[in-house]
Amino acid sequence: MRASAGNFSLVRLQQAVEVAHRIGKKIFLTINAYVKPHDFAALDHYLDQLAPLAIDGYIVSDPGVLSRIKNRDPQREIHLSTQANTINAAACQFWLQQGVQRVNLARELDLADIAAIRSETEIELEVFVHGAMCVAYSGRCLLSTALTARSANEGACAQPCRWNYHLVEEKRPEQQFPIEEDEHGSYIMNSRDLCLLEQLPQLINSGVNSLKIEGRMKTLYYVAAVTRVYRAAIDGYLADPHNYQCDPLWREELDKVSHRPYATDFLPVGDAAVHAQDSSYIRTYDFIGIVRELVDNNLARIEGRNRFFVGDSIEIIGPQMWQVTFTVPACVDKNDQPLEVIQPNAQVWMVLPDGAQVGDMLRRSKL
Ligand code: SF4
Question: What pLDDT, on the 0 to 100 scale, is given for residue 221?
């Protein structure tokens, strides 16, 4: 999925590191492909270019990549990606001896497995709590390579697991038999999205050190909306574990971002994990703008992301689950000319509700 992303140049990466560190966050760079012999020269060159940057560490899968990083950039923290399929404590101990600080466990593990691993290793453990899943073991899958010559390992998966398949008898290739589970057809390998919001207390008590949200090719709105929900839930539980309750608002928020139907586990690959109806996303809200500048009296410069209109009922969301529904007031462009329609990429000025901050996001219901 990452191959067609607008990936970071070295300059942009350094800028991102500076921004992240200024606000007390870390940046780990993912190099979790399995690398073929002819790619090592490019990998070495890339690592040499990365070495002067102040990234906090690497996320890798391939032991060859791990060893190259240890040679060329030995001080850097190293995390093991879920792509490495770590499913037991012995493997965790092995990676610890190789200099890995944190292991992102395979999604196939259940809570008892995670707790068992925790009891037998001191390495930092991380688990996925939210986002897309593969039906293949932690994405180790050749389906896309076989059907489209696009390698999932190299970040270019065409997601053929989500296509609609038919049965064809050898001597009648023109005749396709639907293998229907219902009127939509049969999406036999189409995994649901993971959502462990309601299992957070058990996960925290299992002793994991880090919770990971999948976000390949997602918008900054998706990242913000999902992360703030899990932040609120984690903070709420840690502040008062005995009286903690999963707030229904949190789940509503997760339903408002673009997602496939949610599931709480990966295995067994049956009704719980596979969504048979279709492979499209459920999308009930559009991300329509972001607050770029705020001056006196809540007057804000908004950067449009999707078309919206003066008079629309919209929501603004910010950190700590802050959100307000309001009606789009009169807007003007940079020349002070009134606008009725705000187009994508437009820069417009409008008055926002009290409490708005730079970076807050605007969204509108599609229903
Ligand atoms: S084809 Fe599907 S299962 Fe295989 S890597 Fe791509 S998304 Fe995952």
Answer: 95
Task: Please state the length of the chain.
Answer: 367
Tell me which residues of the chain have a pLDDT lower than 50.
267-271
The pTM assigned to this predicted structure is 0.86
Does residue 289 lie in a domain region? yes
Whether 159 lines ligand 1, by a CB cut-off of 6 Å, is yes
Angle at 338 between CA 333 and CA 342, to 5 degrees: 60
Q: Domain for residue 274, yes or no?
A: no
Nearest-CA residue for atom 4 of ligand 1: 141
pLDDT for 270: 43
The answer on 306 and 209 residing in a single domain is: no
* Strand residues in 70-185 grouped as ranges (E): 77-80, 102-104, 124-132, 166-168, 176-178
Q: Are 344 and 306 in contact (CB under 8 A)?
A: yes
DSSP label of 70: H
Q: How many domains does the chain have?
A: 2
Same domain, 133 and 233: yes
- Can you give the pLDDT at residue 132? 87
In which domain, by residue range, is 132 found?
A: 2-137+191-263
Asked if the structure places residue 148 within a domain, the reply is no
Tokens 């296509």 locate to 163
Which residue among 159, 164, 187, 188 is best mutated to probe the pocket of ligand 1, counting the most ligand atoms within 8 A of its Cβ? 159
Asked whether 161 lines ligand 1 (CB < 6 A), one says yes
pLDDT value of residue 298: 94
Residues 350 and 239 in one domain: no
Task: Using DSSP bridges, classify how beta strands 361-365 and 285-294 pair: parallel, antiparallel or unpaired.
Answer: antiparallel
Report the CATH number that the domain containing residue 50 is assigned in CATH.
3.20.20.110
User: 258 near 281, Cβ under 8 Å?
Assistant: yes
